[in-house]
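Late entry, written up from scratch paper. The run itself happened at the end of the previous shift, but nothing got recorded in the book at the time, so transcribing now.
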Amino acid sequence: AAAVQVYNEQVDDLLHLEHQAGSGRDMQIRNNGVIPGLTWVTCKRPETMLEAFARARTNLVYAETKLNKASSRSHAIFQIRLSRRERSKAPAGAARQV
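Output as recorded:
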């Protein structure tokens, strides 16, 4: 999973470990929307993905406007990359559970 915030054509990495210190800010978008150096968190369990989502939300920047006190005037994007693995086959002669 990865997360970015886009504001005024600036892209910030919301999952960068040093985000609060200013790292992962103003990242460049390359060919086909790829962001080199973007932090990707491997999520093997749903809880890990929810933790990444919560961490990204805490790093969002909000700017108050006259019309909306919780407006950010930005876009937050949480990306999930799914991969599929082949299941390992049981060795020949092994008992099969039904």
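Residues 46-58 form the longest helix (13 residues).
(Scratch paper discarded after transcription.)
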